[in-house]
Write a structure and sequence with these properties.
Low-confidence stretches: none
Keywords: Coiled coil, Magnesium, Metal-binding, Nucleotide-binding, Nucleotidyltransferase, Transferase, tRNA processing
CATH class of the largest domain: Alpha Beta
GO biological process, one term: tRNA processing
Radius of gyration: 29 Å
Cofactor: Mg(2+)
Strand content: 5-15%
Helix content: 40-55%
Mean pLDDT: 86
Structural class: alpha+beta
GO molecular function, one term: metal ion binding
Protein name: Poly(A) polymerase
Largest sheet: 8 strands, mixed
Length: 479
Amino acid sequence: MSGSKLSPDDVVELLSAFPVADELAERFAAAGHRLYLVGGSVRDALLGRLTGSYDLDFTTDARPPAVQKLLSGWAEAVWDTGIAFGTVGAAKRGLTLEITTFRADTYDGVTRNPEVTFGDTIDGDLVRRDFTANAMAFDLVARELVDPTGGRAALGAKVLDTPATPEQSFSDDPLRMLRAARFVSQLGFRPAPRVVEAMRAMAGELSRITPERVQAELSKLLTGAFPRAGIELMVETGLADVVLPELPAMKLEIDEHHQHKDVYHHSLVVLEQAIDLEETPEPDLVLRLAALLHDIGKPDTRKFEDGGGVSFHHHEVVGAKMARKRLRALRYSKEVVEDVSQLVYLHLRFHGYGSGEWTDSAVRRYVTDAGHLLPRLHKLVRADCTTRNKRKANALQRTYDELERRIARIAAEEDLRRVRPDLDGNEIMKLLGLPPGPLVGKAWKFLKELRLDRGPLDHDEAVAELLAWARSEGIDVPG
């Protein structure tokens, strides 16, 4: 077994962060078993980036029935949903623990599901893992780092490599290729050349992976610290051609301002600028997806104009449909699909504002159409300004500042978050003598449009407008 002593600071960091781990190890040691902390917690402790709470992963020489016995009476809850894979779960003091027996799995090369085989050594368990940076364990009894594949050196060099050959690793589980891009985004590592080469050669193997698993990795990549690097690796190696083909397709399209190499690079800049505008502690997945995909409609709408110009008319409409279709295929939630596609649809609306020509009615419609997405739309529109002409960029930002001031002014006068007709459905039915039905809905819509155009009306004015509309529609109004 390859082992090295950690520095006192490393040990303190690990064990002070996870006192439950030390306590559990004592139970295993008393029963004659070894217990090792593995996974992201070990890696992040060595990187000095332990933050928040972790679900703790352990590996042990004890077989599942022995693990269940050791957890019984100590853990607050124990479950065996993963026991077919050698994993027993437990809860203790707000932490989720998973203890897995040493594994020495084999794969069939068709699915990513292994034929589970229990192993006998910690080294054998670690060398089957995805990357050397994740193939380390902390022996909780010996206070020793177990590192048979050079993971600690890889951490120091910020290199992502595989314990076995990349071809073998990715053949066992093609999702590891997407995980490589995810770790590049999360950790700021660079992939080893042999890893990149294998990803290029084997990208098509990702088609074996379920959309749900792809979506989970893509979301983690996009919410990482360096998402652009992860996306560029996906595109460079062909992974994106399999899981998000609309992205590399944008590399073919020169944007109409000729200020970027192509729409793809423009979109990466917009993504970075949108991230800079985030105000929440947690990354905003919806905003990042919208920034990345906001121009995916351009390839399908490109038109070469007389005189050498290029246009992309209605690319926001086409792009919204494309975004909805792709995100559904990736099994994103209905809320994410609708929010992202709506942001893509609305991202050009501001450019009709000119130098402030919008009426208050147009401002109300902008706010109403955006709804709860308005704060994100503000960020997306601002991020979409990537011109290198500083004077033009400053002018655009000043214009948007003015629009936000107008929104704030009108919002102070009216409740823009809940623009509704000045008369409700019950009053419409009473005034027009109508039963519930389509005509009431039509009248309600008329009054809402009137509200958007003219702002709040007093009651008598709203009644007069409704009655006039009803007569124009041939509705017999009660005397």
